Amino acid sequence: MTPADRIEAAIPLMNLEERMKGLPPILDATCGARMMWFDKHNPLALFVDKKVVPPRMVGNGRNSRIFSVDPDMVVDFTNMPFDDNSFCLVVWDPPHLIRSGDKAYMTVKYGRLDEHWRDTLRLGFQECMRVLKPGGTLIFKWSEIQIDTADAIAAIGQEPLFGHKSGRKMNTHWMTFMKLHDELRTGES
């Protein structure tokens, strides 16, 4: 199913404004191989990533599998081409590695941050919040294998509303943010 077909299938679930834009209500800003998605072709989501990885075999024996990154659009999460207030929900799972080889599977799979990772995370968070509609939700997934979650939160400059640790070693953190309406942010009604 093509991205256009998926958007067309989701149209009955969108309001008129979203239909006019032609965008689904959900943005996965760093989709990678769409591993967190139950439906990897969910028509309610636009899947973007800054890289494309053609299908290739990874792993050995019983653990071998085909891996690919096939976004609907190639987009850098620090500079997205979408209008302000475009999505109801943004999912953001940025690279979390700073030390890994260029051809290492983890680098191919997740990407790698450079020495300016704090700026990259801050800019990425700001972009995700910019494209969220007021009242929209941002789900931020972070794996603290090489960078502590507290350091990632400090880099983005905003505390999450709530979150959850998961994974075998409890290194993966799922955090929730909300883009407040201006009146809620300032306390006015």
Q: How would you explain this protein's 3D organization?
A:
This protein is α/β, with parallel strands linked by helices. The protein has one domain (3-54, 64-186): Rossmann fold. Helix content is 25%, strand content 27%. The chain has 6 helices and 9 strands; from the N terminus they run ααββββββααβαββα. The chain has helices at residues 3-10, 16-21, 105-110, 117-131, 149-156, 182-186; strands at 26-28, 45-49, 53-58, 65-69, 73-74, 87-92, 132-143, 162-166, 172-178. The strands form 2 sheets. It has a 7-stranded mixed β-sheet with strand order 5-2-1-6-7-9-8. The chain has a two-stranded antiparallel ribbon with strand order 3-4. α4 crosses α5 (149-156). The longest helix has 15 residues, at 117-131. It is globular. The termini are far apart. The model has no long low-confidence stretch (mean pLDDT 86).
Helix percentage range:
25-40%
Beta-strand portion reads 25-35%
Give the low-confidence spans.
none
Compute the number of helices: 6
What is the CATH architecture term?
3-Layer(aba) Sandwich
Write the layout of secondary structure elements.
Elements: H1 3-10, H2 16-21, E1 26-28, E2 45-49, E3 53-58, E4 65-69, E5 73-74, E6 87-92, H3 105-110, H4 117-131, E7 132-143, H5 149-156, E8 162-166, E9 172-178, H6 182-186
Parallel strand pairs: 1-2, 1-6, 2-5, 6-7
Antiparallel strand pairs: 3-4, 7-9, 8-9
Helix pairs in contact: 4-5
